[in-house]
Structures are given as C-alpha cells and as structure tokens.
Amino acid sequence: MIETAQAFGVDIGGSGIKAAPVDLIKGDFAEPRLKILTPEVSTPKAVGAIVKQQLEHFEVPESVPVGVAFPAPVKPGQKLEWIANLDQSWVGVDITEALSEECGRPVVVVNDADAAGLAEVQYGAAKGQEGLVIATTLGTGIGTALIYNGQLIPNTELGHIILSAKHLDAEKYASSAIRENEDLGYKKWAKRLTKYYGLMEKYFNPDLFTVGGGVSRVSEKFLPYVDIKTPIVPAKLRNQAGIVGAAYYASTKQA
Length: 255
Hints:
This protein is an alpha/beta fold. The chain has two domains: about 5-110, Nucleotidyltransferase, domain 5 (2-Layer Sandwich); about 125-235, ATPase, nucleotide binding domain (Nucleotidyltransferase, domain 5). It is built from seven helices and eleven strands. The strands form two sheets. Strands 1, 2, 3, 4, 5 and 6 form a six-stranded mixed beta sheet that branches. Helix 2 links the parallel strand 5 (about 65-70) and strand 6. The longest helix has 19 residues, at about 185-205. Belongs to the ROK (NagC/XylR) family. It comes from Bifidobacterium reuteri. InterPro entries: ATPase_NBD, ROK.
C-alpha cells in the first residue's frame, strides 16, 4: 500500500463493494479505488471474501486500520436485526465479527450513512462546524447521520420520520427516487424537501444540514428553493464519502 495512506476504507453496497487506501491528512483516496460487483448471493462469507481480495490487492499492512461502511444499523457486539440490500443470511450475525473472521484481521464496521456524515464533518462541507450537523443523503431513500461537535450519534433512521398522517414516511415522499418516479420538477420537489427539512429543523435545531447523494451534483436546481432557516449545503465528498469516512472512523478506534 502506498506510503501516503494511513487507513483503508471499504464501502459495501447492494450493487458494488468499493475500497481504497485513504490519506487521512487530505481526506482523499491515496490510490484509485477498486470496485467489485456485490455477489448475487451476498452472504457474509461471499462479501467477506471480496473485502479480503481488496485488502490483498492493495497489500494493506496488518498495522493499518480498516474501516467498513455497511448498509444497516451497526451495534458493536450485537447481532444484526434486519438488512435491506444484502442477503438475509446477515440477520442474526455480528457484522464486525463475521467480516474480521473472513478477512483474517480486525476490521471496524460503521453504518454507511454515518461514515458519509463523518467524512463531511472531517473533510467536506461541514468541516469546522460546531454544534449539531445533520448529514443527509438523497437517493433511493433518505440516509441520515447526526454529528455533535465531531462526535457521531450512530444509527439514526430519520429518513423514516413521519411527516403527516397522509405522508407517513419521509423517504416515500421526498427521496430522489420519488422525484424521478413521479417526474417532479426540481422546484416542486424542493417544496417536499422543505416539509422534510423543516420538520427536522423543528425537532433537532441543528446548526447545519448537508445534502449528499448523486443529486447533490445539481444542488443549484433545488437547494435554493428549500425554505428553512438552518443553513443547508451540498456535500463535497459525494461517492468518496463512505470509503473516506469508514477509514477515518477506523483510525479513531485503533488502540
């Protein structure tokens, strides 16, 4: 592994598993990432084998912390209760234990939305921001991460917050996928986002919202029309955030 990397990050998704050595000083990849398609039957053994392959590809030393961004709530020492985008054989499994065993070395696991949020706070759009940052990702659903004065409040699922009696689940009303499926214009979609972020603002009184996901590339088309008091800005790390955030998180957990 290249000398400018201090940690290694992996981002496990339903379609692809991406990994790269990370320069924690710059908050960037130290080498181009390696992406391998997620196995059709994405069991812990099959996914773990790919992560091990990526570690071997980059010749990651045993001393380097390895962080894994995972698409489910992660509670250290506890077994997974549910999973949406990977094989159901993950249910009842201790994720950290299973991946560490398959890789033949300790790994640190963090929820994928939390990893992305940490990356934005440490290196991206929320760097230097004090108080409460709510990092959001608008995609198939709505992912969220809460970071207070740099400390992660893990495993929030605020994409499922109840908007109203009519719109029970926020992500079924205001996600990027819903915008595409219902062919909403950006200004009309921004009205839905105003309802969502406005309610979050009311409940949490955050100091900053960040907005990630692929749609953040065209943030100028909708963010100016989100009518809330709290500053709201596009994420900067975008598709790198999961890997960078996971690597950073692992570095904070190494003894």
